[in-house]
Request: fold
Amino acid sequence: MSGVIKVGDGGGAAQPAAQPAAQAPAPQTVGVSMKDFEFGPVEIKVKVGNTIAWKNDGAKPHSATASDASFDTAIFQPGDTKSVTFSKAGTFKYYCQLHGTPDGNGMVGTVIVE
Reply:
């Protein structure tokens, strides 16, 4: 426990110690795995300012490409990781360019940014 003791000349009431300003939570990085032609998890929720790191844990190249073209990791190889930071709220559907389609078929996922 910590506190502040104010020592003065006794000529007045003690003043309360100033409280530190509330700080916004630090941005976080959240992982999504790409393996066996699936994203895991398929749907993920993050806060504005957070980053998603897609890791290709499979044996084939993959991408994470937004259906609305708002982000694209480009195609990357097994073992590699690509990241995207989300600066605005919304729901972003995405797919793998090689194994999914922008209309939601195949290897697809959803990012919900709050």
About this structure: The longest strand covers residues 90-100. Residues 29-113 form a domain with the Immunoglobulin-like fold (CATH 2.60.40.420).
